[in-house]
Amino acid sequence: MAMTRSQIAMVVTLPWLAAGVVLLAMTRIEGETQEAKLGLFGSAAICFSIGCLARTSLGLHDLMQASHAAAAHAAASPPEPPSPGTQPP
Predict the structure, then answer these.
(1) How far is residue 11's CA from residue 51's CA, in Å, rounded to a whole number?
(2) Cα separation, 58 vs 13, whole angstroms
(3) DSSP-based three-state secondary structure for 78
(4) Among residues 3, 2, 11, 21, which one has the least CA distance to residue 51?
(5) Nearest-CA neighbor of 26 among 47, 7, 53, 9?
(6) How far apart are CA 76 and CA 71, in angstroms?
(7) pTM of the model
(8) H-type helices in the chain, by residue range?
(9) What are the C-alpha distances in Å from 33 to residues 9, 42, 46, 55, 77?
(10) Which of the 8 DSSP states describes residue 62?
(11) How far is 52 from 59, CA to CA, in rounded Å?
(12) CA end-to-end distance (rounded Å), the chain
């Protein structure tokens, strides 16, 4: 079963939401060592980068589909005849 556009947008957004939750948790934790907080920050950074890669991949997919649709439209429509009064090259 194919995913709808809104489902894909949610999947792309989830890593950014996870990064935000981890950063929020990092600021609320009391009594943890600096290393533990740094580890949480690294996890948040990884989640954020995964979200960026997912969004870039989706954008490239959209561009590819638009390119294929434009090429199919151009191949399906016959060329327009020159307008009167213009000379062919």
Answers:
(1) 9
(2) 11
(3) coil
(4) 11
(5) 47
(6) 9
(7) 0.70
(8) 5-28, 34-76
(9) 36, 14, 20, 33, 66
(10) H
(11) 10
(12) 51
Q: Which two tokens stand for residue 41?
A: 């920050």
Contacts of 25 (CB under 8 A, 6+ apart): 40
Residue 32 tokens read as 């943890």
Residue that the structure tokens 């589909």 belong to: 65
What whole-number percentage of the chain has pLDDT above 70? Answer: 87
Token pair listed for 82: 């020159």
Q: Which amino acid is at 7?
A: Q
Contact 59, 77 (CB under 8 A): no
Whole-angstrom distance, CA of residue 19 vs CA of residue 13: 10
For 3-12, the pLDDT digits (tens) are 888 888 888 8
Q: Do residues 43 and 58 touch, judged by C-beta distance below 8 A?
A: no
